[in-house]
Amino acid sequence: MNRTVRPKGAKGKPTLAGFADASKDAMCRTVYIVWNTEQEVKQSSLLLAKTRVVPLQGTSVPRAEMQATVMLARLIMVALRAAAFTCALVTASTDSAC
Questions:
Q1: Which of 19, 72, 90, 92 could form a disulfide with 29 if both were Cys (CB 3.0 to 4.6 A apart)?
Q2: Alpha carbon distance 8, 27 (integer Å)
Q3: Dihedral sign (CA 23, 26, 27, 29)
Q4: How far apart are CA 10 and CA 38, in angstroms?
């Protein structure tokens, strides 16, 4: 298992890409780091991921989507504070249709 997030031949600053999703049962969010390499290829690696089960009382899917999005923003902030480098771009995405 490779323990570094910077691939060999990486150039420039990386990009962080965050994704969030939720259902009536659970919520998840992930943060990937994407590097450009000398061969003009983008290489991505999973940086962080967290999941959470929806409370037993239940919640609506739109509310769970919003909670997952807020938690994604917090997870991205954790990644940015912990990184030993600055990122060129940060994106956050969700598949919510609400």
A1: 72
A2: 34
A3: negative
A4: 6
Contact of 54 with 64, CB cutoff 8 Å:
yes
CA distances from 3 to 46, 65, 75 (A): 11, 31, 20
pLDDT in tens, 11-47: 999 999 999 999 989 999 999 999 998 888 899 999 9
Query: What are 69-91's pLDDT values in tens digits?
Result: 999 999 999 999 998 888 999 99
Tokens of 67: 């909670």
Q: Where are the alpha helices (DSSP H) in the chain?
A: 61-82
Question: Distance (Å, rounded) from C-alpha 46 to C-alpha 63?
Answer: 26
